Amino acid sequence: MNQAMEYKKVIYIHQYKALTFDCYGTLIDWENGILGVLKPLLLAHNTNLDDAQILELFAEFEAELEKGDYIKYREVLKRVVQKFGERFGFEPTADELNSLADSIQDWLPFSDTIEALKTLKQKFKLVIISNVDDDLFAFSAKHLQVEFDQIITAEQAKSYKPSLNNFRLAIERIDLPLEQILHVAASVYHDIVTAKSLGLSTVWVNRRAVQKGINTTGSAISQPDLEVPDLKTLAALSSAK
Q1: Name one GO molecular function term (predicted).
Q2: Pick the catalytic residue: 22, 112, 133, 191?
């Protein structure tokens, strides 16, 4: 039995009309984007951390900042850099403070993302629900090469996932019954738990199943309706008879 057929036993994807996606970590390879900025920045300040340490601290600082009163994601990333400086005893320059947000325009999709989105676009409405600013996502949209039917950002919701607010705004705009919406995400903490609590079916894109890496998506206990190792597998499901 091939992998797609094995997954097909778990969920029947053709019952859905809209697929909602987390972006960073699901469609865009944000870990390499983060490391490409923070690793040399830290080394410039005589701080030598391995990839795991950098990504775990990033996740810690980001989650802390997103729990408070809403601030734009560009400011979140600026303060993440500041917190690295506070933790390791250095003062980032103005350019360094802006370096993470400025680098988003260069963060690239995973190798299977574009082809999978193009395949899925033939059968489903595609929607983004992302913890980002409108202008920052606009950079990523150019890399993704498909037209999304709706784009819901943290800037529009004035809150960050795992807040219910972001998903409720998306559901309102999509204007379909819950049973016709399938949420696709790499983060159990930010996405799967909240989406399921609202009655949405969920797909966990668990790239960790085939790629060795660090958990920057947060941990939480929740059972997705479907687990796939990549978007290529999800797209194959949509094409299966």
Answers
A1: hydrolase activity, acting on acid halide bonds, in C-halide compounds
A2: 22
